[in-house]
Please model this.
Amino acid sequence: MTRYVIIGAGAVGASLAAQFELSGLDYVLVGRGAQISHIIEHGLSYQRPSGTRQIRLKAFDLGAPPELTPDDILLLTVKSQDAASALAFWSWRSVSNAADMAAKNLPVVTFQNGLATEATALRTFAHVYGASILTPARFTETGKVVVGGDPEVGVVTIGRFPSGRDETANRIAADLNRAGYLAEPSADIRRWKSAKLLHNVRNVLELFDGPADLRAEIGEALVEEARRTLQAAGHKLALPSERSIDISNWRTAQDSGIQPGQQSTWQSFTRGASSEVDFLNGEIVLLGRLHGHPTPYNEAVQALAGKLAQQGAFSSPLPLDGILSLVDNSDQTRQTGLAAVN
Model:
C-alpha cells in the first residue's frame, strides 16, 4: 500500500497531510522547527471555507524521521530555496528491506514554484515527478494553515520529469482527487511549470505599496518580460484550454480567511523566513543572462527583495516607484555600455 511521505509542514505540506488524514490515505508529515513541534503536540488548526477544525496528524520532526519503506512516495513541499538541502538529506537515506538508498528506489514529487527543483532532484533521484499546484493557502501563524479553495482544496498537474506519463503519475493524481484536489497527470510537466512561473513573477509585488495603476503596469511588465525570456530559452507554455479536467467551478471562497496580496512570497517575509524570489524572478534573470535577453524589471524586484530579506524583518512595504528607478538606471547603464562599444 502506498504511503506518502510529505516533506515540509508549511501551507502546502500541512494541508496535504490534513486532506490525506481526512480521506483515509496513508501518509506521514515531516517538518522542522516550531511548526512541526506544535503539530506533534497539539495537532493542526486547519481552516477551510466550511469551518476550522483541530486535526491530529501523523507528524515527525526532521531530527527523528520515520523509516522509509519500498512503498513510499516522497512529496517535497518545502519552499524552492530549501529544496536542495532537503533533497540532500533524503536522497541517501536507507529504505527498509531494500539494497539501494531512497534516491534509487523511491519516487519524489516536487511541488516547488519555479523551474529549478526538478533538475536538482534528478541529480540524485532516479524517479522525479514535477507538480504544479494552484491553491490559495496561508501559513503565517504557528500551528495553523488556512486554505480557501472551494469546493476543492486546489488544482494539481503532475508528470514525470523531464517528460512522460506513467502509472505512478496516474496513481498520485487519483489519490489527490480522492483527497479533495482537482488533479490530472500530464506527459509534459515542464510546460505547466513554465506557465505557472508567469503567475508567480508577480508575487513579489505584494512586498510593495503604491498606486493600483502603477502596480498593474509593473505586473504586466514582469509577466511580459518573463514570457519573452522563457520563449527565448526554448520553454513552451501550457494553455488553460489544454486541461483534461474542468476547473471552471473552482474558486477562492469569500470570507475564507484568504486575502488578496498574501501569497507565498508575502507569507515568507511576514514570518521572517527566507525568500523564494531568487527562484521566481531570479529564474527569469538567469535565463535572460544565459540567452542574452534583458530582464530589467525582474532584476529590479529581485534586487529590492534581496535587500529587504537581508534586513531580517518585514515591517512595512517598499515603494513601487523604487522599481522604476532601478529599471531606469539599468536602461541608462545598458545604453552607456552600448555607446562605449560603438
